[in-house]
Amino acid sequence: MNKAAEKTSQQFESVFVSPMRSYTLAALDYYEELVSAQMDAARAYSDMTIAQARAWLDVKDADSFKKALESQQKTATDLMERMKGDTEKVTSISQSFMQDSQKMAEEATKKAVETAKQ
Q1: Distance from CA of residue 67 to its chain's centroid?
Q2: Do residues 109 and 15 make contact, with C-beta atoms less than 8 angstroms apart?
Q3: Is 8 helix (H, G, I), strand (E, B) or coil?
Q4: What's the pLDDT band for 15 if we cut at 50, 70, 90?
Q5: Which of 30, 31, 57, 88 is close enough to 97 for a disulfide, judged by CB 3.0 to 4.6 Å?
Q6: Residue 13 pLDDT exceeds 90
Q7: What pLDDT, on the 0 to 100 scale, is given for residue 74?
Q8: CB count, 10 Å around CB of 106?
Q9: What's the whole-model pTM score?
């Protein structure tokens, strides 16, 4: 391979392939974190729902009915707090990915300009 072709190949790798690989890795990490957060949330919501169903199945008299209602109120409060935390977690993951992507785009643009000047 001659030097001009080798230089062109290196520039292509530097300007296009390497940044795309970095972005793809960041995107995979983002989706992995996002899916994990969603799976954790789904599991927690399912566990709460099943626990509530079991509490209502235990109702046999006025006292157990009162306990089931109290349990449902507590679960509703816990659910709202969990949803708030899950929303904050997903927002944080998304913001981090957006910032990383923006930084990578800026670096790739800078690298492309420098390469074009050569």
Answers
A1: 37
A2: no
A3: helix
A4: confident
A5: 30
A6: no
A7: 96
A8: 10
A9: 0.76
Neighbours of 118 (CB within 10 A): 6
pLDDT attached to residue 1 = 58
Taking phi over 0 as left and psi of -120 to 50 as alpha, with beta for the rest, 46 belongs to: alpha
Question: What distances in angstroms separate CA 54 from CA 30, 57, 58, one per listed residue?
Answer: 36, 5, 6
Which pLDDT score is estimated for 49?
96
Q: What tokens appear for 76 in the block?
A: 């509703």
Per the CB < 8 A criterion, the answer to whether 5 and 105 are in contact is: no
Nearest to 37 by CA among 95, 90, 80: 90
CA–CA separation, 56 and 65 (whole Å): 8
Tokens of 20: 């795309």
Cα 85 to Cα 39, 79, 80, 101, distances in angstroms: 14, 10, 9, 24
What integer pLDDT is reported at residue 10 of this predicted model?
79
Dig out the tokens for 5 from the structure: 């072709």
Number of residues in the chain: 118
Question: Side chain identity at 62, as an amino acid letter?
Answer: A
